[in-house]
From TrEMBL:
It comes from Phytohabitans flavus. GO terms for cellular component: extracellular region. It comes from the Bacteria. The keyword Ion transport does not apply. Residues 416-637 form the Glycosyl hydrolase family 67 C-terminal domain. The lineage of its organism: Bacteria, Bacillati, Actinomycetota, Actinomycetes, Micromonosporales. InterPro entries: A-glucoronidase_C_sf (IPR037054), GH (IPR017853), Glyco_hydro_67_C (IPR011099), Glyco_hydro_67_cat (IPR011100), Hex-like_dom2 (IPR029018). The keyword Hydrolase applies. Keywords: Hydrolase. This is Xylan alpha-(1->2)-glucuronosidase. GO terms for molecular function: alpha-glucuronidase activity; xylan alpha-1,2-glucuronosidase activity. GO terms for biological process: xylan catabolic process. Residues 110-395 form the Glycosyl hydrolase family 67 catalytic domain.
């Protein structure tokens, strides 16, 4: 496909303007190999004379993906040790736009912080009767399959390019809940994975597959999937060998085991290290990895039993296994202890396993943050998580080897349902490359690339900068989480999960609200944290307001650090949050005529829904707590 066609075929990140600028100027790239050909195909290039020299001069090597950039004598030069670095350098030039061709500058080095920057698609081949085709997908159908068969992969090529432009280098293409049809991607439907891998390869992206732990039984006809059984080990080894014969750079497997009904090693009385290691051993000869998810908890618990705490589960299961996993087994840990809520503390598992490779998992798809109907820019949330100093030595970004996220992309013309949700995909890639980047500057980059430099940037910042906190303010209060409608998880349902087996409770009664997770009187979850957090969260006085109800059950009159009572805080934030949504809609008016009319129409439709939904949240939450507590609103506003 030609550059022009490619540029015209999608709306984000590589505006024709930027490409033309690059083609018209002189960009020199130096390097060799397949990815260089991709770069050449994109822009046409020349090779500089002094590239070798400069590389020799730079003392540290740039690694497989790093690049150096400088400008001298009217030429912008990208240097890399390896082809992927060149590709990332090229996209960096695109990001810089006109600035890439101004003045002269010395050598800058760019090297990714995370070795793997991965997106997990929760795509099914078939349309699942409850979950749809993409589990927790809010952007239409899968970009890989339609009507049970592979789609034309042209759009996947555009997608691959778009991901490379954000810095993503690994993609798992199917749902972690592996159904019978998708399980076969590992064996007789492997050809479909081969085709996708070929499209991703020129963009430096490796393909991974979610596999079922029961595959030896489901696909191999073995009587058991026991990880210590010789036949099972042999089956995984042979199957994996066949995968690599077809896809030599295959990335590896993703496994959700013993979780929400998926099969796993517990079924055979084995540990999760035993389970992960049998797959790791099969992958090791080929350089592959297994991402083993730590999202293991009892989803059939008795809500009357106050001693079971879902927040504890991952640590209780996995911390004792530290040091028992193979080097190529990566424990994939959700960023919080429960499940991608709008506000959670950082998972203590991230610090609990120093002898294990840990990947932190974020949710770019907005399951619990407005489902791409609400404008919620998640960059600030992720930046806060990654920069959180969990131990005295390191922050989360320093403890994690990799960053993984659940994708928010589907076959929607705007890729992400809500056009503004593209910013989340972009921010994820950029933060995985460099977790210290300012999320608001990342937003600026996205605005430039996706909407152009002439739009009302101040209005976009006013809409998006605080949108995560706005969403938080009109939904479940103070870190208590899960007041969503069961099943689809959109909109408020105050007691929807309260008396269910899922382990997601708020314990609101007439006296107070919140989950007592202290060592002194609660579930003891605070004890899973290193100091000082263990004591900070244990202490009612020191616990940060925004996490108060995650860690403590308090009376409605409890006074927060802010000076407000819990009940008054609930009223105030819910009134303010719903008003803020109205303000966001008003701000968007300023972009009228500055953006593509279809995009404009889509954003307006979503903002209308956000305003409606925020009011619904406000009214249900306020009324619920008003009725429970009997406390009036100090400002006398209407509560139903
Ligand atoms: C939950 C989702 C569910 C996923 C699960 C997971 O509701 O659809 O399968 O996470 O991460 O939040 O496996």
């Amino acid at each position: 496909m030609s550059i022009d066609k490619l540029a015209a075929a999608h709306s984000a990140w590589l505006p024709p303007r930027a490409l033309q600028a690059i083609k018209a100027r002189r960009v020199a790239v130096h390097g060799a190999g397949r990815l260089v050909e991709t770069v050449r195909e994109e822009v046409g290039t020349t090779v500089t004379e002094d590239a070798e020299l400069i590389l020799r001069l730079s003392s540290e090597r740039l690694g497989d993906e790093g690049f150096a950039l400088y400008r001298r004598d009217g030429v912008t030069v990208v240097l890399a040790d390896a082809p992927a670095g060149l590709l990332y350098g090229f996209f960096h030039v695109v990001r810089l736009g006109e600035a890439a061709f101004a003045g002269e500058w010395p050598v800058e080095r760019h090297v990714p912080a995370m070795r793997r920057r991965m997106l997990d698609h929760w795509d099914n081949i078939d349309v699942h009767p409850v979950m749809g085709q993409v589990e927790r997908g809010y952007s239409g159908g899968s970009i890989f399959w339609r009507d049970g068969v592979p789609r034309d992969l042209d759009r996947v090529r555009v997608y691959a390019r778009l991901l490379a432009a954000t810095g993503i280098n690994a993609v798992a293409i199917n749902n972690v809940n592996v159904h019978a049809t998708e399980a076969r991607l590992l064996t007789d439907r492997l050809g479909e994975v081969v085709a996708v891998a070929e499209v991703f390869r020129p963009y430096g992206i490796r393909v991974h597959l979610s596999v079922s732990f029961a595959a030896p039984v489901m696909l191999g006809g073995l009587p058991t999937a026991d990880p210590l059984d010789e036949g099972v080990r042999g089956w995984w080894a042979q199957t994996t060998q066949r995968v690599y014969a077809a896809i030599p750079d295959f990335g590896g497997y993703v496994v959700k085991a013993d979780s929400e009904g998926q099969p796993g090693p517990f079924g055979y009385g084995r540990s999760h290290a035993d389970g992960a290691n049998v797959l790791a051993d099969a992958l090791a000869p080929f350089g592959g990895v297994v991402h083993w998810r730590a999202f293991v908890y009892n989803h059939r618990q008795d809500w009357r039993d106050r001693s079971t705490d879902r927040a504890r589960a991952a640590y209780d299961h996995f911390a004792p296994l530290d040091g028992k996993f193979r080097d190529n087994a990566i424990l994939q840990v959700k960023h919080g202890p429960i499940d991608f809520q709008t506000r959670e503390p950082v998972s203590p598992v991230i610090a609990a396993m120093p002898a294990t490779s840990v990947a932190v998992e974020l949710q770019v798809t907005q399951e619990y943050t407005g489902q791409q109907r609400h404008a919620v820019y998640l960059g600030p949330m992720w930046s806060e998580i990654l920069g959180f100093r969990l131990t005295s030595e390191a922050d989360v970004a320093g403890l994690a080897r990799e960053l993984v996220a659940v994708s928010n992309v589907g076959d929607d013309p705007f890729w992400t349902g809500h056009p503004l949700a593209q910013a989340n995909l972009y921010a994820f890639g950029r933060l995985a490359w460099d977790p210290t980047l300012d999320p608001l500057s990342i937003l600026d980059e996205w605005v430039d690339l996706a909407l152009g430099p002439d739009v009302d940037r101040a209005a976009l910042h006013a809409i998006l900068d605080d949108s995560w906190r706005t969403y938080e303010s009109y939904t479940a209060p103070l870190g208590v989480g899960f007041m969503v409608r069961p099943g689809h998880h959109y909109g408020p349902d105050v007691d929807g999960y309260e008396y269910t087996p899922w382990g997601t409770y708020h314990f609101a009664d007439r006296e107070g609200v919140g989950v007592d997770r202290t060592r002194a009187t609660g579930t003891g979850f605070t004890g899973q944290y290193p100091q000082p957090w263990s004591d900070v969260y244990e202490s009612l006085e020191r616990c940060p307001d925004e996490l108060l109800l995650f860690f403590h059950h308090v009376p409605y009159e409890h006074v927060l650090h802010s000076g407000s009572t819990v009940i008054q805080h609930i009223y105030d934030t819910h009134f303010a949050g719903a008003e803020r949504a109205v303000e966001m809609r008003r701000l968007w008016e300023r972009l009228a005529g500055q953006v593509d009319p279809e995009l404009d129409a889509r954003v307006r439709e979503r903002l209308d829904e956000q305003v409606r939904s925020a009011a619904e949240w406000r009214d249900q939450i306020n009324t619920y707590f008003h009725r429970k507590s009997g406390e009036p609103d100090a400002k006398g506003r209407q509560i139903y």
